[in-house]
Amino acid sequence: MKKLIITGDDFGFSLAVNEAIEEAHRCGVLSTAGLMVGASGTGDAVDRAGRLPSLRVGLHLVLVNGTPISRSQAVPDLVDQRGRFSPHLFRAGINFFFSSGVRQQLEREIRAQFQAFWGIGLPLDHVNCHNHMHLHPTIGGLILKVGREYGLRAVRYPYEPVLPGGPLRRALAENGCPGCFYGPGWLF
Predict the structure, then answer these.
(1) Per-residue model confidence as pLDDT tens digits over 60-89
(2) pLDDT in tens, 12-27
């Protein structure tokens, strides 16, 4: 039996995102959120999650378009001169796949983010990656390898209607609450 789960990504990215996720959950639209453990609003997101015991929180790994939680010196092949991950998904994916040194650094960063999530004390609901990079075979394999050590039971599988006005989005607009943040649907 398939189960539809609506989740909000980038929990912890900013206060505005955190507020939207909380509102959507309180309205009954959103049941899970993916927490970015190294983002500026992480503390606020964790506080909100503590006040929302029915909100299931997963780890939203950031491996592109962001900043590592590891020191740049520990993951030099993953970051640019400013210490940021590549915004070029295709190029990053090629690099992840073909370089064993890069894969070691990816594992180090993935482990650091799992460890940071574990240290927060929230139960781990699921894992996914920023920009759906968990669908990349190298990253997916590393998530499974490292995640088993942290009790990983689910990796989010994205299902997104092709058109912006797809059936899920229309249903949410017709049945949701005004002002709620509507994220795409996700199937496990």
Answers:
(1) 999 988 999 999 999 999 999 999 988 888
(2) 999 999 999 999 999 9
Where residue 135 falls among pLDDT bands split at 50, 70, 90? confident
Tell me the domains of the chain and their CATH numbers.
4-187 (3.20.20.370)
Answer whether 86's CB lies under 8 Å from 80's CB: yes
Q: What's the pTM value of the predicted model, to 2 decimals? A: 0.81
Q: In the block, which residue shows the tokens 């992840």?
A: 96
Q: Which uninterrupted H or E stretch holds 59?
A: strand 56-61
Cα 74 from Cα 79, distance rounded (Å): 10
Q: Are 32 and 56 in contact (CB under 8 A)?
A: yes
**Nearby residues of 57 by Cβ (< 8 Å), 6 or more positions away:** 11, 32, 33, 34, 35, 49, 122, 123, 124, 125
Instruction: Tell me the three state secondary structure of residue 34.
Output: strand
